[in-house]
Amino acid sequence: SQTDSIKDYHYQTIDKLAVGIVHEIRNPLTVVGGFLQLLKPYLIEIGKEQYVDIALEELKRADQLIYEFLNESKPSEQTPKRISLNQIVKDTSLLYECEAILKNITIRNRFTDEEIDFVANDKQLKQVFLNLLKNALEAIELRQDKSRNGIIDYYTVMEENRAVVVIKDNGCGMNEQTLRNLFLPFHTTKDTGTGVGLSVCKRIIEEHHGTITVESTEGFGTMFRIEFHLR
Ligand code: ADP
Ligand code: MG
């Protein structure tokens, strides 16, 4: 099918890029990590060592992602285990907390009373939600109307036997053309975008037998829904 050939193209291109880029990106990451370690004592002094820990964790994750998505071009072969969807939403929110505060954006969480747990690959699911959160933050920065406060609603809800995660922003929204193409690899409307984020999200969600859908109004905002069918 056309989608498969686009996927193949995506993988082949990434394989080629990988050879040249992986080492080049890993080196600066190592340098940044080194300097962060040097800063740690000062942050401990003012009780903010959590920040440096998060930054180092993120560097590690970036390094791993480069390895997984560029070098292997297939998602990591982590053995699936029982995961808590609420915990994944909490963890990924925390990672963007700092950036959201700096950009004056509120991330509002809400969780199901009952724990939602099922067997999944938690690294991959985190990757999905981080990509979606990043897009939401960027969409808020990109909107024309700066009078409204930036808000991201990021929550879990059970609908019958479906576990649902919603990420809703009041950012720039999308036009018809973008809505039609947003899951295609390399489709981006951003100056510095890669257009890889959502195609990776879709692939991972489908590998988890879930669905990802989107509703968007240009100038008003966007809502992504990820649904997992539980037994
Ligand atoms: P990138 O973020 O690098 O552009 P993505 O695959 O993550 O690539 O997204 C593809 C495109 O989909 C974006 O360039 C943007 O036009 C659109 N998009 C994705 N998420 C949102 C959102 N929350 N609000 C508005 N547009 C979005
Ligand atoms: Mg993106």
From TrEMBL:
Higher taxonomy: Bacteria, Bacillati, Bacillota, Bacilli, Bacillales
Enzyme nomenclature, EC number: 2.7.13.3
Reactions it catalyzes: ATP + protein L-histidine = ADP + protein N-phospho-L-histidine
Protein name: histidine kinase
Enzyme class: transferase
InterPro entries reported for this sequence: HATPase_C_sf, HATPase_dom, His_kinase_dom, HisK_dim/P_dom, HisK_dim/P_sf, Sig_transdc_His_kin-like_C
Chain segments annotated as coiled-coil in the UniProt record: none
UniProt entry keywords in alphabetical sequence: ATP-binding, Kinase, Nucleotide-binding, Phosphoprotein, Transferase, Two-component regulatory system
Gene Ontology MF terms: ATP binding; phosphorelay sensor kinase activity
Domain Histidine kinase: from-to ranges: 20-231
Signal peptide feature range: none
